[in-house]
Amino acid sequence: MTTSRPAPVPAAAQPPAAVPAQAAPPLLQSDIDREVAERQAAYEKARAAGAPVAHHPPRDYLPYRSSALRHPRQPPAAVSGDPDTAELHGPVFGATDVTELDADLTRQHQGEPLGERITVTGRVLDRDGRPVRGQLVEVWQANASGRYAHQRDQHPAPLDPNFTGVGRCLTDDDGTYTFTTVKPGAYPWRNHLNAWRPAHIHFSFFGTAFTQRLVTQMYFPGDPLFRYDPILSSVTDTSARERLVAAYDHGLSSPEWSLGYRWDVVLDGPSATWIEEGR
Amino acid sequence: MTATPPLPPTPSQTVGPFYGYALPFAGGGDVAPAGHPDTITVHGRVFDGAGAPVPDALLEFWQAGPDGSLAGAPGSLRRDPVTGAVVGRDGVEFTGFARVPTDADGHYALRTLPPGGDAPYLSVCVFARGLMHHLFTRAYLREDAGDALLAGLEPGRRATLIAAAEPGRHRTYRFDIRLQGDEETVFLEYV
Ligand SMILES: [Fe+2]
Question: Low complexity bias: where (chain A) (predicted)?
Fold first, then answer.
């Protein structure tokens, strides 16, 4: 019955079989690419006209579709701190809040997880370059196949019974944190058709002030998915974006054991010492 | 102290949907020692710009202790060294820190002690999938005419920062967070 088939249409014009005829056309990578490029160009034009560097992503960033209804439209209200401002102080953590094993994500189960064993280490600093000491660092990540141990992650990649993908530690006197883990896999998500996240580890940091709070993601150098990812691209400043990418450091690799990555972090926001020093 | 320019900060990225095994912890909203007579409950819901509940937000609270101290104390996620499980605060030190995920209805609840001193607010940090950069706000347990932030807001906006005592409920305060829209919560920037 081949003669009754309609003429083939170009692949890009074919709706996926699962989409009903009346549904909106699926959002394609090319749509996202165009939106990302428009925002990138607008930022660079503003910079050329003297606008300040945007170190953080704008909260209103449509290429990441989930942001649409979850960002405020009103500008933030300015709070100028004094020593009694609660946010210029912050929560503290100590030896009772972590156990020795927490920083090694490969030793939390009876067996060893599958994947490429890695060490990730770096220093946590404030904007004056002072180490953030004794503070909590938390991480979470997908396993080597790109699957989270989370029931809402339905990516049909294997779970690893020996990997939960969660760790924590306190920074030392030098501000250094260190984790042993496996390299996470890339994974698909549903922002648009054929959307894939580059491999990343989620990180959470506390500073000496609550204003320095940071949750972010660390990426691996040279990932071919960077240019397709609206979450990384939401950081429109190129050098800021590069600060989210760890460096492979051969000196941190262990012979016949693991590969090493270095990623230093600088916490933004006024710290308590800014106030003490009268700035 | 120094003429060197400040280091450029590491950018924020969204917390995403999959922080569940990492960030929430047992007793994360139980800052008050169990059975403390001064305990208050602060609760509410988080809504998006369409008025829908946000079921995957994570809220953190930081506050002065009942004595007004802003020093905090370790032990919010005290661990059992045998099993590694979180065993909760020791019921003696007031850590001042809470972390509570919203449930499927976008609801959260926190049990704490009122902050002492001059500043009657809980500082709130909001994380969520779709939110590129966390948001700060404050839950005031009373309207304070002398508070510079509240004084600078027009009344409708100011009301979004007030955790109102709920009639008929013992020592219970309601604090909803609206990420976007007509009754959008006032979010803060520290300068
Ligand atoms: Fe992720």
Answer: 10-25
